[in-house]
Design brief:
By secondary structure, the protein is an alpha+beta fold. 22% of the residues lie in helices and 40% in strands. It has a single domain, classed as Bacterial Protein-export protein SecB, CATH 3.10.420.10.
């Protein structure tokens, strides 16, 4: 089972200033949840929606809803959406876009350079709702 990313779109984003309690380097907390949607017109296409919240303490909180459309080389069904391919490959392909988007929003909004960590979704696959 192989999947290929062919489209992506930010559905929503919010940015809130996080008040500085001290001048330490910001501690970063990240929460990622996701949902899978099947395409009713093409059984080989699915959408993975990632809801991401990043709290850079003493800096800002960013919430992003980011949709990624994938094409599979096989039919997308319940078994497929629970497979390692979807739990590992989809977040592995999507996260660099999410990471870059959030870092850019923070930089362009005047919050400085906030570097988000990388996650290894191959070693630790995501849970899919």
């Amino acid at each position: 089972m192989n999947i290929k990313l062919f489209n992506k779109k930010v559905q929503g984003m919010s940015l809130k200033r996080h008040e500085a309690k001290d001048k330490k380097k910001p501690k970063i907390k990240i929460k990622i949840t996701n949902e899978i949607f099947n395409n009713i017109k093409d059984e080989t296409i699915f959408r993975a929606r990632f809801n991401v919240t990043v709290l850079a303490e003493n800096t800002a909180e960013v919430e992003v809803i980011y949709d990624f459309d994938f094409k599979s080389d096989c039919k997308v069904d319940d078994e497929f959406t629970k497979s390692l391919s979807v739990r590992s490959d989809a977040p592995h392909l999507a996260f660099p876009y999410i990471k870059t988007y959030i870092e850019s929003v923070l930089q362009l909004s005047g919050y400085g350079n906030v570097n988000l960590p990388y996650f290894d979704f191959v070693e630790e696959p995501a849970d899919i709702d």
